[in-house]
Amino acid sequence: MNLKVFETKGKTMLRLRDLVLGIQFFLVILTGVIVMSNLTKVHVHVLLFGAGIGTLIFYLITRKEVPLFLGPSLAFLSLITERVGTQPIPPPELAAAAILGGIFYVLISIWIKRIGLYKVMQLFPPIVAGNIIILIGASLVRSGVILAETNKFVATATMAPVILIYFFVPKLRKYAVIIGIVFGWIVALLFPSELVPKAVTPPEHLEPFLIPRLVMPKFTVKLVGIIMIGVLAPLLEHIGDVFAISNVADRPYYFKPGLDRTLLGNGIGNIVSGFLGVWGLTTYSQGTGTYLLMREYRPIYVLIAAIISLVVSSLGPLSRAIYAFPAAVIGGLMIYMFGFVASIGINVLIANRVDMQHPRNLFITALMLGIGLGETDIVIFGIPLNTLAVAGIVGIFLNWILPKKRG
């Protein structure tokens, strides 16, 4: 194809191959959006539209350089409700949470710009950053295992082709994920529908054209307090994902375009998506796992996925198709995608030659992983704090007070 697009280093040509890889990236992102829809009872097409708009904003603010996609955040969601999966959450509360979180991100971005990135980076040495990335991957794998258990055979049929193609068919290596998804879906069609449940229930009626509705936020003093304290979890998730993609691509995105710009893009994306009824966006880790398999780190794939998200979520027939995604296919995909993310964290520790025999590093790692892999949020002063947030705080604090010299 001869469609010209803008890329990190000027103009390039958008080829058919790029479109296929962009679709592959979209399908990986879609699995996370579907899971969030299942938890909140907010329709997939609504979340997908908000994610697409937020990602386009992020893409432009980060100067079209950072290959990360923004999607609905479970960490944000856990801040505003303890009723996840039991009943719908009022849209005004979702909107208020996203907007408040976005404002907080923007303020943090301004603060980083003012004090300088170097001082901020001192808070996240490899021993802390690596463990945060490990926790992001390891904690999210659980959701994949739960979905895979709906039909273990289909989940295996989704994972197996990816492994076989990657190692034994090198020419198709970049397309391994989309081949695995298609094969898993075909296998799912061989089973009776009751044995292969869908990941989310579709709405009874979808108009041919789906026009997003603006949602007016409902702010409360309690919600403001919860967000201002608890937003640390998605903040650390964002920082961890920027470190992870920087490690995978061997390019320090946290320096250029800078962590201040990635947070600014995420923050403004949250504010805009909040008015569309999406509670808060975060960088999606499974995108990094996809890049790790593709061995290509071009932001154009993010742009393609964002545009597809907007098109699919705006057209009723296409939106109905995404509701047919089998839960087991998503589960199989999530297991190795988030497993890859955890392995990136391990690689951060290895590449930076972190001495894991040093008692200081052992204590930091032990406490971060022990707390972060806990099953439930930790409640402090009535505010639920994601275990990732608490683990991050503990890691930063221990890194600050523990002596660097061996005793």
Walkthrough of the structure:
There is one protein chain. This protein has 407 residues and is mostly helical. The protein has one domain (3-201, 213-349). It is 66% helix and 5% strand. It contains 17 helices and six strands. It has helices spanning 16-40, 44-61, 74-80, 91-115, 117-121, 126-148, 152-168, 176-189, 221-230, 232-249, 254-274, 285-294, 300-314, 316-322, 327-351, 359-372, 387-401, and strands at residues 3-7, 10-14, 70-72, 281-283, 378-380, 383-385. The strands form three sheets. The chain has a two-stranded antiparallel ribbon. The protein has a two-stranded antiparallel ribbon with strand order 3-4. A two-stranded antiparallel sheet has the order 5-6. Helix 6 packs antiparallel against helix 15 and helix 7 crosses helix 15. The longest helix is centred in the N-terminal third of the chain and has 25 residues, at 16-40. It is globular and about 65 Å long. Residues 1-11 and 82-86 have low confidence and may be disordered.
Summary tags:
two-stranded antiparallel ribbon, disordered N terminus, 407 residues, 5% strand, mainly alpha, single chain
